[in-house]
Amino acid sequence: MVDMNALVSSFVGRTDAEVLAWNAYVLKSPLATGYHLAEWRRIIEEAFGHRTCYLAVKDREGTVHGIAPLVLLASPGFGRFLVSVPFVNYGGLIADSPEAQQQLETSVIEEAKALDADHVELRHTEAMQTSWLRSERKVSMRLSLPNSYEELLKGFPSKLRSQIRRAQKEGMSVRVGGKECLDEFYAVFSRCMRDLGTPVYAKGFFAKILEVLPKETRICIVSHRESPAAAGFLYGFRSSLEIPWAASDKRFNK
């Protein structure tokens, strides 16, 4: 059991030592996601200009026992609130003991009050043992990858397999790259968001992600006769790869 009296919450700065200690805790925690990495603090601050508040719980020796990456959002329509982590799918508190979690929860509430925030939103991948209100309106879909493309294809429904083969017969080609593919990705993505009536993130947001996390990110472009028809932004962490942003050009729907 961790001694609650020995745990202290503190704000985490941006020095190399603090960033290394933060990321070391993220990388050893089974509850962490790629969005807990300290690099996302820089991305959000530089791309959007939002105020961030990164909290850590440490013992007397300085060992980290929990973290909470928080971003303050404020708008006339939605008020002021803290989110962990906005603009992406996941975030939330990470703690290696109930005592550390309790200390973090208390510190988050205190910080929300200090910032005059209306509420706090924590985007956990697993349910927490807590008295906080819980929403289960969103789900994540995960697919374990087999050893070969053929095995993967066999696991798909027949309709999906037919759609994949149709695209291949139509001469669709796939290219995977980095920042050199950003313009093509954004052209497809922004057009799709416009057609859906959804506000689109600035291109600079995606450029900043590619700049700060070049090894963890890729862009996938699906083209027809050299014209981009669909695009996906890929983000990898540990043994998982996800597509947080993807879109297709409806002009290629047949």
- Mean pLDDT rating: 92
The fraction of residues assigned to DSSP E strands is: 25-35%
| Tally of individual helices | 7
Order of helices and strands: EHHEEEEHEHHEHHEEE
**What percent of residues adopt helix (DSSP H or I)?**
25-40%
User: What is the alpha-carbon Rg in Å?
Assistant: 21 Å
Task: Tell me the span between the first and last alpha carbons.
Answer: 61 Å
CATH superfamily of the largest domain: Gcn5-related N-acetyltransferase (GNAT)
Strand count, sense and barrel status of the largest sheet are:
6 strands, mixed
Structural class: alpha+beta
Shape: globular
Low-confidence stretches: none
Query: From the 3D coordinates, which CATH architecture of the largest domain would you assign?
Result: 3-Layer(aba) Sandwich
Explain what this protein looks like in three dimensions.
- The protein has 254 residues and is an alpha+beta fold.
- The protein folds into two domains: 4-122, Aminopeptidase; 171-252, Aminopeptidase.
- It is 33% helix and 28% strand.
- The protein has helices at 16-28, 39-48, 98-114, 149-154, 158-169, 182-196, 203-212, and strands at 8-11, 51-58, 64-75, 79-84, 94-95, 119-122, 172-177, 217-224, 227-237, 240-248.
- Strands 1, 2, 3, 4, 5 and 6 form a six-stranded mixed beta sheet that branches.
- A hairpin with a 3-residue loop joins strand 3 (64-75) and strand 4 (79-84).
- The protein starts with 7 loop residues before the first strand and ends in a 6-residue tail after the last strand.
- The model has no long low-confidence stretch (mean pLDDT 92).
